[in-house]
Structures are given as structure tokens and as C-alpha cells.
Specification:
This protein has 316 residues and is an alpha/beta fold. It has three domains: 53 residues, no CATH class; 122 residues, no CATH class; 105 residues, 3-Layer(aba) Sandwich (Endonuclease, Chain A), CATH 3.40.960. It is 45% helix and 18% strand. The protein is built from 15 helices and twelve strands. The strands form four sheets. The protein has a four-stranded mixed beta sheet with strand order 9-10-11-12. It is globular, with a radius of gyration of 23 Å. The relative contact order is 0.08.
Length: 316
């Protein structure tokens, strides 16, 4: 079952609870007692279920609560629409993003960011009972209004999974009416690469470009006398440098572990690196904490001999 639909089954509106005999006084009592969580006005979730949710699921619950409590079904957009489309984004959003339709009558609230744009008229889809901007227009909105790394993460994933086509995106972009929006979109689209195999790799690449680090080769295959060693995330041929983003998924998810224990995966990674170093390469690794603090990533790469040159000129 889709995660949004699964979470919707746990939410209760005040009207649904009233049908079960729970009146307003009882609702308030249960919230004070900590057995019920008020997600949004008129939308509730059992405290036990709420405390078992991670940050992403709590955001999904907030999106569902906004939808349930709206007088008219909102059109979700930007980062929120990306989540509905199962497209990765960087960081859990603080606000629920919606696209204003028609007259600019609605205002943003403390948990809702309403977007008004004259740049384009978005396509619309309905997924799991939620209205959202179409995938291409969601990517367009991210490319023109989000950060460069966030837009690249979303686009790379869509390209890798063949969910969008650059030609279709360029067609959608014909509705952009400002030079600034066109420039931002063009930079993201030109930079997008389906060879980036994870959000961490995409975000790393984007930060490298913003710092002016020379572009690496992606998914380079290495062999020695024993045969295949690895297909690496990043390779700088001139420096003999191999870069690896470690998102730790390979130590947790069965599909990456191939029946091995976590400790065996660690041993195999050590052997893999030793074989690469035996060929004369330098190997540098980094994790999400380095990507989330880009100056740390820059310092790490510069310490291995890479040079920060002309940065990508990105203006939001």
C-alpha cells in the first residue's frame, strides 16, 4: 500500500470521531492526557502512532491533514508535490507547499506556503486522493524556485527512473516568462545526469559545481588482475582520485547486502578499497553530514588535491 494511503487510515477527523461517540470535551481531555495528538485543527492521530513516525512520515501526516481540513482540495506543489510523486528532495520541508489557483485570495499560514506565479500554468494530477502539480511542472517549480542541490536531486532521480524526458521538460519550460527563471531552469536541466545513483551523489555533485570543483566521471568501473573491483561514484582522472558517497543504506537494506551481515559488508568495503589503493588510486569517502554542511565537503575534497575554481553562478 502507498505510504500516504496507509497513513490516512490512521488519521481521524473530529467528525469521524463524533460518529464514534467522542465529543469535543472528550477530544480535549484525550489531547491533554497525551493519548491523542492534534495534528491540525479538526484532525487527530493516536499518540502511540504519532510517536512511532519518523520526521518524513510526520510531514506526510501534516500534508494529509491540510488536505482533509481544506474547504476546497488544495493543489500541492513544489517540495510537497515532489513527495507525493515519490521524488526525493533534500531535507524534510517545514511547510506544506500549495499552488494558488485563480485569484490571489488565499494567504500563506504558519504551516502552509502558498505560491503565486505568473511564470507558468501548472499541469495537474490526482495521486492517492491528493491533487498535485504534474511531475514535469513539479520539477520545473523546483528548478526555478528551490535550491540548486534540491532541484538536481529531484531531476537526477526522475531521469534515472525514466519518469521524465528532457524534451518534455523543455516544452513545459516554454511557459516561463522571466529570463531569471529560464536561466535557473536551463542550468538545472543541463546539469541533470541519470548516472547519479542516489540523492546523496546528486547533492554532492551539485555542491561541487557550486564550489567550482572540476566535474568528476560518474560510475567508473575498475578492475585488477583478480577481475572486477568496483563501479565508483566519482572519479577524477587527472588526480587519480576516487570519491565515494556513503549513505549507509548498503549496511541496512537487504537488497544492497546480498544476504551478507552488516559486518561482512564493512569487511568487503575494506577489501574493495585496498584493491583500489593497490592500483595507485586515492580513495576519499564522505557521508550525509558532510553534504548537509557543504564547507566540510569542500575542505575534504581540497585536502585531496582538488581545486575550487569558478563556481556555478546560481541565483534564486
Amino acid at each position: 500500500m502507498n505510504r500516504m494511503l496507509e497513513l490516512r487510515n490512521h488519521l481521524r477527523t473530529s467528525a469521524e470521531l463524533a460518529l464514534q461517540g467522542v465529543d469535543l470535551t472528550q477530544l480535549q481531555r484525550q489531547c491533554r492526557a497525551g493519548t491523542l495528538v492534534r495534528v491540525r485543527h479538526g484532525i487527530y492521530l493516536r499518540a502511540e502512532a504519532w510517536h512511532n513516525l519518523d520526521r518524513w512520515d510526520r510531514y506526510r501526516v501534516l500534508v494529509l491533514a491540510v488536505n482533509l481540513s481544506a474547504q476546497r482540495p488544495p493543489l500541492f506543489s513544489h517540495e510537497t508535490a515532489a513527495l507525493i510523486h515519490s521524488i526525493p528532495i533534500l531535507g524534510v520541508p517545514r511547510l506544506v507547499h500549495t499552488q494558488q489557483e485563480g485569484r490571489r485570495s488565499d494567504r500563506s499560514r504558519k504551516d502552509i506556503r502558498r505560491h503565486f506565479t505568473d511564470d507558468y500554468t501548472p499541469g495537474k494530477v490526482r495521486l492517492d486522493g491528493l491533487r498535485a502539480t504534474s511531475l514535469n511542472y513539479t520539477l520545473l517549480a523546483l528548478a526555478t524556485e528551490a535550491t540548486f542541490p534540491s532541484a538536481v536531486v529531484a531531476l537526477d532521480d526522475s531521469l534515472r527512473r525514466n519518469r521524465t524526458d528532457p524534451a518534455q521538460l523543455r516544452t513545459a519550460a516554454q511557459s516561463l516568462r522571466t529570463a531569471a527563471a529560464n536561466n535557473r531552469f536551463g542550468m538545472v536541466l543541463d546539469f541533470g545526469d541519470p548516472a547519479s545513483e542516489s540523492p546523496g551523489e546528486s547533492a554532492s555533485r551539485a555542491h561541487m559545481a557550486l564550489f567550482g570543483i572540476q566535474p568528476p566521471e560518474l560510475q567508473k568501473t575498475f578492475r585488477d588482475a583478480r577481475g572486477f573491483i568496483a563501479q565508483t561514484d566519482f572519479y577524477w582522472r587527472e588526480r587519480g582520485l576516487i570519491g565515494e558517497f556513503d549513505g549507509f543504506i548498503k549496511y541496512q537494506k537487504p537488497e544492497y547486502m546480498g544476504g551478507r551481515s552488516a559486518s561482512q559488508v564493512v569487511v568487503d568495503e575494506k577489501i574493495r578499497e585496498d584493491r583500489l589503493r593497490a592500483l595507485g588510486f586515492t580513495v576519499v569517502r564522505w557521508v550525509w553530514e558532510d553534504v548537509n554542511k557543504p564547507q566540510r565537503l569542500l575542505s575534504l575534497l581540497v585536502s585531496k588535491g582538488l581545486i575550487a575554481g569558478s563556481p556555478l553562478r546560481w541565483k534564486r
